[in-house]
Amino acid sequence: MQSQTWQQQQQQQQLWQQQSPPPQQQSQTDVVSGEQYRYALTNFRIAHEKVEQQRLQLEEQERQVAALRARIALLEGTPSGSTTASSANGNTVDDFSIRSAAAHLDKLINRWASDVLRTPPQPAPVLAAAALADLAQDSAAPSPATSPASSLRTHAILRHVLAEAVAEGALNTLAPTNSPAANAQLTRLHAHLLARAPPAAAAWRRLTFSAAVQEYAPAMMRGMLAEHAPELARVLLNHPLTPGEADLPLPPPLPSAVLSAALDFARMLHGGAAGDAFYRAFVPEINAGLHPGQIELVKRCMTSERGGACRVGATVFPGLVKVGGGNSTEGKEETQVVVRRAQVICDCALGGGSAGTTAA
Fold it and tell me: Ranges of Low complexity compositional bias (predicted)?
């Protein structure tokens, strides 16, 4: 009996030794050194601090986005609690960025005209006469003989002729390529699509501009000047634009930066517009009537304040109209919303004196 009991104890001890890990292995599994523990604790604390920092950054970004949305809603005239992108007058958030880009282009045009008059290549009356000749409005526009070309009037007329070139040469033309002939054909095709199916025209326009050139060649800008301001370019350079110089950059004082920015603005305008809307530019003619819904006076008009009727002296930046964007179909009149009114100086303000006081 004792031998059997002893054998059973030996068997149980062997079985326990087989099931239990060696002492060294058990200590390696269950026990870590103090250095490893402190290292793990430090890494955990650093990771926790980074997560907390990211959480605070996300909260700050959310507050900034909310403030920006409230600011956009205020500028667009929508209620601050509204989450929709459109407002009652048809404007969208995209219109805000368009107006901002237009304001930047307006500053470039103003700066170019100021630089030209600061160091004029020709006398002011010669520059004004060349600009008026390009506008092809000699019958309606005042001639230098009857209306002296003051610095203020010459400055405004230079801005007017460049606004006309920007509107007709860039904003009202689809220019996804560096080929004027191809751009003209694409513009005609788009006009045909827009008249029949505005949604299809919008989809085609976005697809076309997704493959547009990222940088326009000098020939594009020379073509704009040759078509819309050839006489002014000739006076500024003392020689006409020649086809042999088509690949050369525009030399100063030609508005190279302005035309490049105008083409970039047109690409953003036509390739990134929201919905089915299409944007067109308009330039009120010299001596046209003052229509408050279409123009914005950049200088006070004393004649209108006294109850008289004044006229457009010069348009210093074109206006923008959004065409469509709703449920327009063929046969129905398309809706038009003035996104940015044309910037105009009235005729009496260009006459000098107290009539040209800057508006507040």
Answer: 1-29
